[in-house]
Amino acid sequence: QHTSHVTVENCIIHSGGRYFLAGIGVLVFHASDVTIRHCDIADFFYTAISTGWTWGYKPTTAARIVIEHCHLHHLGWAVLSDMGGVYTLGPQPGSVIRGCHIHSIGCAAYGAWGMYNDEGSTGILWENNLVHDTQSAGYHQHYGRGNIVRNNIIAFGAEEHVRYSRPEDFFAFAFERNIVL
């Protein structure tokens, strides 16, 4: 058995991570059919929403996670590194992040990304998001397969706008109809 059919909706989650600096607003490890919608998550020293907990391409129960219409902002505060407004890890088929406003993310040393597909993130659609004012890139894929990034606005990344850091010999992600400023 595993965790499934969870909804987090219409929540204000602010000022976390004061005792455990790597605290996350909403954390989904091995769960499926999860919806996070209409939430305002801000003022954390790390990530607002993190999904998945499998490094690489090993099978996982994380699937069909929907994050939509959330405001994710003022994260990192130059305290920790390797974070995102939304951080994904491992395969998550059928997952969608859409209609979110992600901004104002800073890190201590590296990695303050808005939309972040980390190690093996696979099968994820990012669409219709507004991402701006990140210390690193608005979108970063470390490595993964078959992700789609479309119809997003990515602006004012201090270091870069889009980053792909570990190319592999197969289709990693499609980057379609985005506006990059």
Tell me about this structure.
This protein is mostly beta strands. The protein is 0% helix and 55% strand. The chain is built from no helices and 21 strands. It has strands at 3-9, 12-14, 26-28, 31-37, 40-44, 49-51, 63-68, 71-75, 83-88, 91-98, 101-105, 112-117, 121-127, 130-134, 139-141, 144-145, 147-150, 153-157, 162-164, 173-176, 179-180. The strands form 3 sheets. Strands 1, 4, 7, 10, 13, 16, 17 and 20 form an 8-stranded parallel sheet that branches. It has a 7-stranded parallel sheet with strand order 2-5-8-11-14-18-21, with no helix packed on it. It is globular. The mean pLDDT is 97.
Architecture blueprint of SSEs:
Layout: E1 3-9, E2 12-14, E3 26-28, E4 31-37, E5 40-44, E6 49-51, E7 63-68, E8 71-75, E9 83-88, E10 91-98, E11 101-105, E12 112-117, E13 121-127, E14 130-134, E15 139-141, E16 144-145, E17 147-150, E18 153-157, E19 162-164, E20 173-176, E21 179-180
Parallel strand pairs: 1-4, 2-5, 3-6, 4-7, 5-8, 6-9, 7-10, 8-11, 9-12, 10-13, 11-14, 12-15, 13-16, 13-17, 14-18, 15-19, 17-20, 18-21
